[in-house]
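Rotation project, supervised by the postdoc (A.L.). Task for the rotation student: set up a whole-complex structure prediction and record inputs and outputs verbatim in this book. Inputs entered:
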Amino acid sequence: MYRSAADLNATKERLRPVLEERLQEGQLGRPTQVLVCTGVGCISAGSQEVLAALKRAIKDHGLDVTVTHTGCHGYCKMGPLVVVYPGGVFYRHVTPDEVPRLVQQHLVGGEPVQDLLYREPGRNPVLFARDVPFFRKQKRIVLANAGLINPENIDEYVAHDGYAALARVLAEYSPEEVIDVVTRSGLRGRGGAGFLTGKKWAFARAAEAHPKYIVCNADEGDPGAFMDRAILEGDPHAVLEGMLIAGYAVGASEGWIYVRAEYPLAVRRLEIAVRQARQAGLLGKNILGSKFDFDIDLCLGAGAFVCGEETALLRSAMGERGEPRPRPPYPAEAGLYGKPTIINNVETLANIPLILRRGWEWFAGIGTERSKGTKIFSIAGQINNTGLIEVPMGTSMRTIVYDIGGGVPAGRRLKAVQTGGPSGGCVPADLLDVPIDYESLADLGTIMGSGGLIVLDETNCMVDITKFYLTFAGEESCGQCTPCRVGIHRMVEILERITSGRAQEEDLRELEDLAHDVRETSLCGLGQTAPNVVLSTLRYFRSEYLAHIRDRRCPAGVCKPLLH
Amino acid sequence: MDRRRPSGQERNYLILDKFIERYRGRPGGLVRILFKAQELFGYLSPEVQTYVAEKTGLPASHIYGVATFYSRFITEPPGKYSIGVCTGTACYVKNAQAVLDRFQAALGVKEGETTPDGMFSLRTTRCVGACSLAPVVTVNDDMVGEVTPDKVADVIRRCREAEAEEETERVPERRRPERDERAAPPGP
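Outputs recorded:
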């Protein structure tokens, strides 16, 4: 039970040595801790079996070594991942069969197992996680705990400064001061639109109606993005702490997490986290001896992309069809039960404790002029190191794709990077040096979105990809407004004609006109942004469209009716 | 053995009753109730939807509206092994279509259909968030990564092996209920 900041400190003192050991990398010593990744990627590669085998072997040897499971490191391609401390010796592709050797040679003998270490082709093995190229150029602050602490143990979160920001806020800050700090930090919503978080909070604070609500949008529907899942699975308490602080700031005592059912592990870890926080007194009445009450409940999303749109999310959370409504009024004035409601995305909320603990100046010192802090990106598609990465705002796409992502496989040529999912567009290969932030991506005709980056190479057809996204948007359209319901389907039909060699050049003009119409007249963000991918590919890859139409040829060799 | 013995069925309805009791009237409760019903009965049959409507006091049309809005709810009986081919972007660009085609050919059913023996159903899923392992296939609750078309036969074979294993262990009482039986509401 945590009744005060002093209680939090006591746990921190008690567990600090264990955490310290995990934080100091690069020095070998007698092995005392083994961490096994149990993110979804590693689990599907068999990390649960590795975990069980390790526990067994360590017991059989009578070793004084603890085994802990952690959240996702982001390097799912290399799973199952095992890290041994002190030092942070990084093992990849560990199978249960390799465990006896790992235990015997490293945990007993003190000698790292060379062939289980990460190795670049033609180079020496890399011993420590921090020296692996995939991690070297990252700045993991939001993801710092993922892969480091046991997400199912609240004390480990507390030991790593967890709930310290909440304790400080409750003891020292007025709600207005909290909002001021968040505003000054420059934090913008990580879910897509990039609205200033502090400003949103101020609106809800100023609203007179009561009660007020905090909703965490964990309906990560953008295909190809999985950063929120990694946070929920690897560091769920950071999200709870962010919600608590938001609740204090705007004057809410109830919070909801709207989480998609496609993420069963995230749901389970959230349920555990909420239960533990309640038992510890960090949710409920008079939190940490203050007068502040707050509790959190979960609602499950059931698979509808449109529910990422906040008004649709609210309807869905109330148990109805997730159909959006026009704004204003914005949820900050009229949300759940018609009351002021803050809807923040998972990554946004996970930034909040960091900002309150380390100060807005620190946060504002990272990033670009107008986009502060870091951003988590998931990199997938035609890239060697698929996974989840965190970099400062302003990092170039080239750094992400080549230095961290290891480039395109098999020496193929990169064509474009798609950002922002079905609401976004493409960045062509020759613009990879642009520093990424909200504004620069908008200038390029795409959006930051939630941070999904899909790398496309010469084997991907841009017209086909456009059709893929539009088909998706059409299927996910809720059907309320005509431009979105009908307009998107008309565009898909044109794209069908193009990819099957039945199109005329006038079709391109019609496609472009329709794209503008749908964008300008749709009811909600889904329809307003669905045409982005059309306009973006027409802007950068018009010649590819023309090859389909004039020459009846698919340059990438994807569109089957055009293969001769 | 009486194949229409309703005890398992009744138990499911009792569990559902308790669940409805807990979540009825709570915002978002309906989605939770429908998930529970789907977990218990395998899918949301018209009978189950009507049952939920009666117990929650909501119009059946509302239940149907919600059940058909969300892609995670299914209103047709699934196969014992529900195979989902992820068609999120990362999987799509890694040729998930070819994986789906291979499954369709190997199982002799189209996407959205179930094999006549009720063993396999095939569907496409939204992004499951395992983009690093694309193309991804789910088999019931398990996830299989990097499924190229050539690995499709392997996935099916493993299901058949699990089935054969179960068959040898199975005692008559544990026989899987017939479909119409699973969907039927409890007797008076």
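Student's summary: Chain B is about 50% helix and 10% strand.
Supervisor addendum: Residues 173-188 of chain B have pLDDT under 50 and may be disordered.
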